[in-house]
Amino acid sequence: xxxLKLIFRNLSRHKLRSGLTVxxxxxxxxxxxxxRTVVDAWYSGVEASANNRLITRHAVSFIIPLPYSxxxxxxxxxxVTGVTFxxxxxxxxxxxxxxxxxxxxxxxxxxxxxxxxxxxxEQLETFKRERNACIIGEKIARDYNLKIGDIMPIExxxxxxxxxxxxxxIYKPRDERTDATQMLFHWKYIDERLQQEEPSxxxxxxxxxxxxxxxxKAAQASESIDALSANSRAETKTETxxxxxxxxxxxxxxxxxxxxxxxxxxxxxxxxxxxxxxVMTARERMREYAVLKTLGxxxxxxxxxxxxxxxxxxxxxxxxxxxxxxxxVSAIAALIPSGWFPIFDLKPMTLVSSSVSALVVGILxxxxxxxxxxSIRIVDGLRQIG
Amino acid sequence: MPSxxxxxxxxxxxxxxxxxxVTKSYxxxxxxxxxxxxxxxxxxxxxFLALMGPSGSGKTTLLNLIAGIDRPxxxxxxxxxxxxxxxxxxxxxKWRARNVGFVFQFYNLLPVLTAFENVELPLLLTNLSKKxxxxxxxxxxxxxxxxxxxxxxxxxxxxxQEQRVAIARAIVTDPTLxxxxxxxxxxxxxxxxxxxxLLERLNKEFKKTIVMVTHxxxxxxxxxxxxxxxxxxxxx
Lengths: 386, 236
Hints:
The complex is a heterodimer. Chain A is an alpha+beta fold.
């Protein structure tokens, strides 16, 4: 207990220095947590992917549509248990800054393919019946204060024209990994309009969502699906949903790499801040360490004292940083448009990695001072002026 | 009750410190500076030995060798029949904790600990219970006359009081040997006198063997024997 007391008393010797070091570490841990949260948000789509879902898109690019007629052919493949499809609609709701996923989907089957979107049975049936109905995610309903029966006017861009959708359902996410920021409406509603206004674009879908019974047969099923369109005008590329999502993440590869790099640079900065404090501290106390050695304290005792102090500072800094990260991440989540990062929260793994980083830094920062304090000869230490 | 001279006479056969043909030199950059050359010395149990000499004569080096905080280049140092030059670092640390009490010129108290806590420090390495530790610390502080200053921090004490706390810390484990390096060097005349009286009392009443380095001729008045070191050689 006395040793702990000595550690705590030593911490309070230079209150300003200890305080600034704790503050420096806490700010670094805060930014580390925020950056990891942003990186995690990027990967949230990959993490939320179901292992029994395949995505079939155009072999050249997912922005090139596929014929609607592929649906029946895909459904006939033995491994396949369900097929639905979606088209990226985009459009403008209120203004250009209000970004969230807006998809034209096959109303009768889409929610069978996405069981993680929990929607009331009655609401779903109403949605299926009404051609201009839409179902929106719980988060979108909350953010835009929308309720059943409200009208959502959308100005089309990829599909030009003015559209008005009636909210007929609000889906809840099955778990925290599920995206609750989507707006889903009838593909047929859009396609009928295309048939009238741009017939050459009608009869196409963005991508197919294929459900298979056995995830271990994903490769086999993908091959079979792609074989259907081999050498055709619209060849397909089928991959797991995770791989499909990963391809989106890869488009931002440089940014993510930069953020990963910066987050680890931050750890390096914490290490330097704390190491600097500990080196100064140890240098000032070299004479005291020599006295303790004289009294019979061993290298292990000194290592405990120095590492204990370093760990206390890093622990306090980590604690404050993590404590600040919660409101900071919530504030950022409130500031950014819902659709940018459907899942934007501090993950337990981020908290663990922040804590572990702070503690590892605490230990590393103590290594050099411990080496100095334990290796210096007592007689030399006694001559040091603190 | 026998006098201190009689005590020493009785114990001359009971040699507690044996320094045998000790040589020590220091290296500064590429230059080797000899400090002690072939020193041989015996100190009897209960003796109060004062080591004098000009600066750089090697007296503190000899004291450090006897106390086991430095090692000779050659020769042996035996304390209580233990050849401390052959002990490893960890064993030597344990040996110091059990056998030696240190008094430094500049007290070397930890500023963040109270007088009580400073004196308690060496006891943290023992298996004594909390109650026993408290009793030992209180007894040591009472002995040096600071029973009413236990909760004071070093900066709240005078130089003489700090040195008395340092002496309490040195004796709290009841060591065989007390080594004091210029214990009055940083004190005024009155405080220095009090410290020397205290050391004399520890020697006479508590039979502590004391080896003291000093520049101060007045401090040697309490010693049984005064040895002079000059240019690494010892003269009685």
